[in-house]
């Protein structure tokens, strides 16, 4: 059982590509930008939303049954290294200019690891078949330049070691 406490300094984000055409498109971006380990990251947020539907019988104030519904996994990531990698993961080949027809949007796996160096305990979350859904660029007057990306994942797995 993992009872360790972590901070962002204990974390690392790794990218890999799943099998298939979308994974191959992501691997090309990962290789071109040396993104196996994603650097200069802040404010990573991962959300798992499971819909729960309450069934109410006529004449009853409390629900008779709670039924599980759809599960959605999404989140955001902020990054202080502006090199086009995130935009390329969002747009694929369309990031190089307007393609003539349809193009493949890259899909990748994102592993978020936190390690307590005093106990060698590692907590790993792996988001599978991640696609970026939004990208923004901020150029404030007196702060660091940041890019932000929102994403959705097909499913998530976890491991404590």
Major β-sheet annotation: 8 strands, antiparallel
Counting structural domains, the number is: 1
Kindly name the structural category: mainly beta
CATH architecture: Roll
Number of strands: 8
What is the rounded Rg? 19 Å
Quick one: CATH class?
Answer: Mainly Beta
* Low-pLDDT sequence parts: none
Give a verbal description of the structure:
This protein is mainly beta and 161 residues long. The protein has a single domain (10-160), classed as Pnp Oxidase, Chain A (Roll), CATH 2.30.110. The protein is built from 2 helices and 8 strands; from the N terminus they run βαβββαββββ. It has helices at residues 21-32, 85-91; strands at 11-16, 37-38, 41-55, 65-79, 108-116, 121-138, 146-153, 155-160. Strands 1, 2, 3, 4, 5, 6, 7 and 8 form an 8-stranded antiparallel β-sheet that branches. It is globular. The model has no long low-confidence stretch (mean pLDDT 91).
Helices and strands in order, then pairings?
Blueprint (H helix, E strand, L loop, with lengths): L10 E6 L4 H12 L4 E2 L2 E15 L9 E15 L5 H7 L16 E9 L4 E18 L7 E8 L1 E6 L1
Antiparallel strand pairs: 1-2, 1-5, 3-4, 4-7, 5-6, 6-7, 6-8
């Amino acid at each position: 059982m993992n009872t360790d406490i972590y901070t962002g300094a204990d974390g690392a984000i790794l990218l890999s590509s799943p099998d298939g055409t979308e994974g191959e498109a992501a691997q090309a971006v990962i290789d071109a930008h040396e993104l196996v380990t994603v650097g200069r990251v802040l404010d990573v947020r991962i959300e798992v939303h499971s819909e729960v539907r309450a069934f109410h019988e006529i004449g009853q104030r409390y629900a008779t049954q709670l039924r599980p519904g759809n599960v959605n996994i999404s989140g955001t990531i902020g990054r202080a290294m502006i090199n086009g990698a995130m935009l390329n993961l969002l747009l694929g080949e369309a990031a190089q200019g307007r393609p003539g027809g349809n193009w493949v949007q890259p899909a990748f796996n994102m592993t978020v690891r936190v390690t307590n160096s005093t106990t060698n305990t590692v907590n790993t979350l792996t988001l599978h078949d991640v696609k970026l859904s939004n990208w923004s660029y901020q150029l404030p007057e007196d702060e660091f330049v940041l890019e932000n990306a929102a994403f959705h994942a097909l499913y998530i797995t976890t491991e404590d070691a």
